[in-house]
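Exercise 7. Given the components listed, write out the predicted structure of the assembled complex. Treat all entries as one system.
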Amino acid sequence: MTVDVQGYNPRTGAPVGDAVAGTPTDEVDRVAGAAAAAFPAWSGLPATDRAGVLDALAAALDDGADELVAVADDETALGETRLRNEVGRTTGQLRMFADLLRRGLHVEAIISPADPAVARPDVRRMLVPIGPVAVFSASNFPFAFSVAGGDTASALAAGCPVVVKAHEGHPQTSVLVARILRGALAAAGVSEDVLGLVHGFDAGGALVRHPAMRAVGFTGSLRGGRALFDIAAARPDPIPFYGELGSVNPVVVLPGAARARARDIATEYAGSLTLGAGQFCTNPGLMFVPDDAALLAALAEAVRATSTGPMLSERIRDSYVDGAAGRDALPSLAEGAAGEGAWSVAPRVWQVDAATFAAGPDRFTEEIFGPAGLVVTYASVAELVSTLSHMDGSLTGSVHATEDEPDDAAAVAAALGPLVGRLIYNGWPTGVAVCWAMHHGGPWPATTASGHTSVGGTAIRRWQVPIAYQGWPQHLLPPELRDHNPLGLPRTVQE
Amino acid sequence: MTVDVQGYNPRTGAPVGDAVAGTPTDEVDRVAGAAAAAFPAWSGLPATDRAGVLDALAAALDDGADELVAVADDETALGETRLRNEVGRTTGQLRMFADLLRRGLHVEAIISPADPAVARPDVRRMLVPIGPVAVFSASNFPFAFSVAGGDTASALAAGCPVVVKAHEGHPQTSVLVARILRGALAAAGVSEDVLGLVHGFDAGGALVRHPAMRAVGFTGSLRGGRALFDIAAARPDPIPFYGELGSVNPVVVLPGAARARARDIATEYAGSLTLGAGQFCTNPGLMFVPDDAALLAALAEAVRATSTGPMLSERIRDSYVDGAAGRDALPSLAEGAAGEGAWSVAPRVWQVDAATFAAGPDRFTEEIFGPAGLVVTYASVAELVSTLSHMDGSLTGSVHATEDEPDDAAAVAAALGPLVGRLIYNGWPTGVAVCWAMHHGGPWPATTASGHTSVGGTAIRRWQVPIAYQGWPQHLLPPELRDHNPLGLPRTVQE
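Answer.
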């Protein structure tokens, strides 16, 4: 028995389209088996051919953008502008990985030639795909972190078929994206089973348990991610679980920046906090500011001027309201307005001093998904730096500074560095640039695997394993490892 | 209450030196805390300075080689020649990582310059050390996979302090190595707590649970490794567990090679199977050969000519005898002789056909640690290839072929590739070359993390995490990421 998955319009609370049947376990088994059957041919394609297929997938999504945006807006209420940009981000990710494949940056070939002086054989190492993988869609990015999102793009680039567990918040969008991808795969002469789709809570667990799955990518809540991580780790053959979970993304405003740019910082903060109704893993949930009346007044004014659209689902709205209620005893800095729509909420920002924060950091550092912020005032930079050490891991840490306080900026960077995956200077954490160098990760509970990223060029590494060839004749080596480097790859050769 | 750890001489069964006290939990806590306290200074050293310290550690071990070899021979009976070579391997590993640090190959810097056309900020990514780590010594390499072994060398190179759990089989050797390393650290002006040592089963579990530990390296049994993996995964904050566990290392002899080189193959097989009394993770426990009477006769003759020294401990000897008894119902191909020494055993090789193997592969693919081999005869290369698919993961797979059977060699490589971390052509799995390209890993149960290696240049990656700097001014960036590349690192720059 499985539970149907029904999408709803966050503006009205009304159902969107028909319910989608939850995938029963035997069907999960069939889909996973089909992905496994598609693995040899997909992984065996030359990388430049896989790049061509990724480009075809991107083109098909771009072609379908009007319909995709319309369906996703019904299910998420994120609005046409944002959703159209998100389709672009999604197809941009696919094209970035196509570009990396053509450049051969995914191979990481290392060649240690034979050295008779130390009786060393010829050893040549490269990365190869790990096998079929499972990807769990996120609620808050119906395209960029969902069926055709970054996990899928990087895994397909690596040569891994993907079975996606659709997010319950946007089932119709998920079905449509999968239909477009599978159609484009078939049109490109590739098995459409390179991309499979399953629905429902039970299907997710079955997928992580499935023997054919060799790794899992996940973006979502701490509780859900931990439960699936535990399943992956408890398998007879444990598999890597790359989960991006909760993050409060500390932002530090140094005294000089507060004096020089109070109004801009306040406006930008309010914008970052409420962007997408605060439903970003990089939302700035925690900000450390000097105890500066002008800055605090500007922050309060900027927050009061905010208004957010509806949240993605009733459950997410309820969870935000519950989390905010848990802070009712704290002094409020300001509240914004709830915009129109069934599941709209008011942005809320509280204020405590650094001593209060340091006395019970666990009370303040659990992520509240949505437009909720905590402003922590500090009396001195020394107190600030000591307070920062009380935090868990986050995806990002940001510092606002002027040119006149480099030592303080360096001290904050040194304190935040071990706690985050990305350090931002005079910027805001929301808006994760898709580029080669991006790292979207961080220590627990930001992720389950701090050595890896779910955005950027190196995201492909999650789906690859090394293999070494020892003593093989040239004609039996993969082209990536032959002496004359027929693919023109960047390679490291031991001297 | 803790249990003392007593080493024994495998030749006589007599105790070696005094028992070493098992480390109580509060002392584990102190040692782990000291490692954490040493982290900022050690990780903050310029890489070239860390390289100098690694070289100093290597020199100190070389200086102490006479005493080290004597103590280790008492505790392991591996013999002076092997042990002296192993000290050289161990110091060679330290020096290889020093060389990689000086070349900057550990940084993996990627720079994505700002691109106003797509509103992309400046993003720069590099690898940094993950924090203090735990390393579990192996029984079978008292130097190269123990206190100063590959895990320790790569972690120290990364900038991570190491707390080693000594192996119960060679406590005196472990104490001596740790004393030499700590003395050399202090002499180099570095905190000696960069290298800590604990003893005993309970201390191992406490170490994996300790909040200060950020990752674990392990080489040992499937059962022990799985238990510690489960502890690491069950932590409130799960940490990566890099375990190298069990492996049967399939070797395939193709028909042409069997006809052309039966005698050489037989001699080399017997040598590889019984080297170090078969106590290698790369021991060739499983060999697939054509049903060729001449080759089988040569194999039997070569095995009968073998004789092995004592195994490392009474427990390992008992485990070998039990494992071998479990195969008593199988047809024997040949047995060698037990050499002198209390814990010596006879090499044993059994023979089944491919159909029998395929009907119940689990019976045949569990590693028996020691000089035990199974020879599987196949009737055709097609049957061989189909039979190979019934195996679990291994560290290595080997193919013996002539120049006249390239298609068969390629077919076997394709079948073995997804199951192993290293493919060897006309060679044997024992003897893992320490070089930049080496990959010593593989799918479960060979390791708990098939994306990583415990030998070779990239072993350092287990102890590193990425961090991205976004929008930072030049003077506040780490030197690794500044525009003018003051360290002269190899870097990837997005175009």
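Discussion: The mean pLDDT of chain A is 96. The first strand of chain A starts at residue 5 and ends at 8.
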